[in-house]
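Hypothesis: this fold can be encoded by more than one sequence.
Test: take the structure tokens below, design a sequence, compare later.
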């Protein structure tokens, strides 16, 4: 689960990851890169619905994805910057 005060930001961040994956598909990125970002999105969903507090894990994973896939807007949305 994500702490109540960060749940909306987590969903916005996840949305940004999905939008980035779609953009990668339109740009005809390598299938393995698209699969990797989608695997990450799937993991983020699991962090949201698990019963343990995964807020910090979620943020750290989004930061890693931002670096690997140049989707810093996902991190900014989680951090409440945009």
């Amino acid at each position: 689960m994500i702490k109540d005060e960060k749940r909306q930001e987590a969903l916005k961040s996840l949305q940004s990851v999905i939008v980035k994956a779609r953009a990668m598909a339109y740009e005809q990125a390598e299938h393995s890169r698209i699969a990797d970002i989608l695997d990450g999105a799937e993991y983020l969903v699991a962090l949201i619905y698990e019963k343990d507090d995964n807020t910090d894990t979620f943020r750290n994973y989004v930061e890693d994805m931002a670096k690997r896939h140049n989707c810093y807007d996902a991190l900014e949305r989680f951090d409440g910057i945009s």
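The CA atoms of residues 3 and 55 lie 6 Å apart. The mean pLDDT is 97.
Hypothesis status: open.
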